[in-house]
Design a protein that fits this description.
Length: 574
């Protein structure tokens, strides 16, 4: 839905003249031909710098060799740079990701023998600027030209690297990069050391941080004896807009619904402070003293001061073996004598399945039939208040059940609005609330959020506002880690390019049988991260479903660190 990612474009060679391929160039790639005027690329990391350069709003920066200035970082300046004796690149079999071809550094070609003509070579994508991307060269002493150094599948030929490792990055490319990427690759070798790349200031992959509201003490009131057809606007109306409840984006109103039966019980409202909640309850009691009973419809309701712990206990009634201390659950030790009270999860698959059934077959759910928006509001409260910070106790299967229910409910809601089945209760505002809760959910992966964005046809810029990276559909091999907030897009893509190149290079060092088997599997998946999935080597089947998010996050961290350190550490003997 976002199109094939234009990761790195091909450069075609005709009669020895480098001609940029159609489309835009990549800011990572520098031209091999230094004759004539340099033609700046068409797009940068996040800002259209080309337009700023053309209009004179910014000037071309002077060439610089500034390096990262982190005094507390161990440096490897004394290490000699890895020499570049690469003459070409080997095309890895295409992974099915919209035309992207992964590449690995090629072996040095032997001297041209008399009577043999060298094939005309052409660059492949991704590794054209080896000063930042190609960290390793593979030693090779074969006495003949490798048979796969000619034309490859797809009709492309091989040529030597466009920029040799260690070349100075042209100024017009540095002008399009972010400041952070220029600092990261500003050294004499065009790449940072492994320790600099793995420093917490630079490393762009993190676990989703919990919301700031999880660390704040909020006031909560409970409204009891409400009609089962009560809607959100009626709750807000009886409290008044001046009651200092949380902002609408924080979803302050939680109408509790039994997920299995669909029955509405009580409602909770969150306030900024405990004092604000106390004032709302005091106002209710003052009205009672004056003979003014607070009603919703024709039914008088009860308003009392409550707590976050009571709210969480009612939102997740099937979470056994849990003691709620505010928003933070404490898992109690297992009791072998009463195994039915042991902790098995905050929500069950059955709860999520029944939540969808209330919408799919409303005639079998009398409560939901009268209040069709209730299951969607229940989903919003579940996603918003779920204790995602407890990653040690949330499994992949439990997260998938919530993700599947979210997608199913969104599809039904979008279809109902399109067919105008209930224009009073099922509105576009309700869709936006569900989408916002899902896109801000700390537990969903980048790919899962991309699926949600696809269902509602979300624009690319709106996805950026929710922290989604470019080519989010290609992040399918990272299940927990997400981009760090505030990191420029080109820094994230530089790290991914290093991972892609290094995993492809490492595969080339394996046996021929293993390469063939891996490439066969790779053809059926996305190649944006190269063969990262091979080194991640996750379990499959029920063992994978039972993995916790914390275990999976640790495994992803370790694999990423191993790949990046291997890529940015000079090879022995160089």
């Amino acid at each position: 839905h976002l199109g094939a990612p234009p990761k790195f474009n091909l450069v075609k060679v005709h009669n020895g003249v480098n001609t940029p391929a159609s489309g835009t160039q990549d800011p990572f790639v520098s031209s091999a031909s230094h004759g004539g005027a340099a033609q700046p690329p068409m797009f940068g990391s996040q800002i259209d710098t080309t337009h700023l350069l053309a209009t004179g709003q910014i000037s071309f920066p002077a060439a610089t060799g500034d390096t990262l200035h982190f005094d507390n970082l161990p440096r490897d300046d004394a290490e000699p740079p890895v020499p570049n004796n690469t003459t070409g690149q080997v095309h890895q079999p295409n992974s099915n990701n919209g035309g992207h071809a992964a590449n690995v550094p090629n072996m040095p070609a032997p001297a041209q023998q008399a009577g043999l003509s060298q094939p005309q070579l052409q660059a492949l994508p991704l590794a054209e600027n080896s000063l930042a991307i190609v960290p390793y060269q593979i030693p090779y002493q074969a006495p003949y030209q490798a048979p796969y150094q000619g034309t490859f599948q797809g009709g492309y030929q091989l040529e030597e690297a466009v920029a040799t490792y260690g070349d100075v990055v042209p100024d017009y490319i540095r002008a399009q990069r972010s400041t952070q990427l220029n600092r990261l690759t500003g050294g004499p070798t065009g790449r940072p050391t492994a320790n600099e790349a793995m420093h917490q200031v630079n490393f762009p992959f993190v676990e989703s941080p919990p919301r700031a509201s999880h660390f704040m003490v909020r006031g909560v009131i409970k409204i009891g004896n409400i009609p089962f057809v009560t809607n959100r606007s009626e709750i807000i109306a009886i409290l008044g807009r001046n009651s200092r409840m949380l902002n609408d984006t924080d979803e302050p109103v939680h109408i509790i619904m039994e997920r299995v039966t669909g029955k509405t019980t009580d409602a909770y409202v969150e306030f900024h402070t405990l004092e604000d909640a106390s004032k709302a309850v005091e106002k209710h009691h003052q009205n009672l003293d004056r003979g003014r009973v607070t009603r919703i419809g024709q039914r008088p309701v009860e308003i009392e001061l409550s707590s976050q712990a009571a709210l969480m206990k009612d939102l997740f009634p099937n979470a056994r073996g849990v003691f709620w201390a505010g928003l933070h659950p404490h898992i109690l030790p297992n009791n072998d004598e009463e195994p039915w009270d042991n902790f098995k999860g905050f929500v069950s698959n059955e709860e999520m399945t029944m939540l969808v059934k209330h919408v799919e077959v409303p005639h079998r759910s009398p409560f939901s039939k009268e209040c069709p928006q209730r299951p969607f509001e229940c989903l919003i409260s579940t996603l918003t208040k779920f204790p995602w910070q407890m990653k040690n106790h949330v499994t992949i299967q439990q997260r998938h059940a919530m993700y599947k229910a979210t997608c199913d409910l969104l599809r039904i809601l979008v279809g109902n609005i399109r067919d105008k089945r209930d224009e009073v209760n099922l509105t576009h505002r309700l869709v936006k609330r569900v989408v916002a809760a899902a896109m801000r959910c700390e537990g969903f992966s980048i790919t899962q959020k991309d699926d949600i964005a696809f269902i509602v046809d979300m624009s690319e810029m709106e996805q950026r506002s929710f922290g989604q990276p470019r080519f989010a559909e290609s992040w399918r091999h990272l299940y927990v880690l997400v981009p760090k907030n505030g990191v420029p897009l080109d820094v994230i893509e530089w790290y991914i390019a290093v991972i892609r190149e290094e995993t492809t290079r490492h595969l080339e060092m394996q046996s021929f049988q293993e390469k063939c088997q891996t490439c066969t599997i790779g053809d059926a998946t996305d190649g944006y991260f190269g063969f990262f999935w091979r080194e991640l080597n996750l379990r499959v089947g029920p063992d994978f479903d039972r993995m916790t998010l914390a275990t999976l996050a640790m495994h992803e961290y370790q694999t990423l660190e191993a790949i990046i350190r291997r890529a940015l550490t000079p090879a022995l003997g160089h």
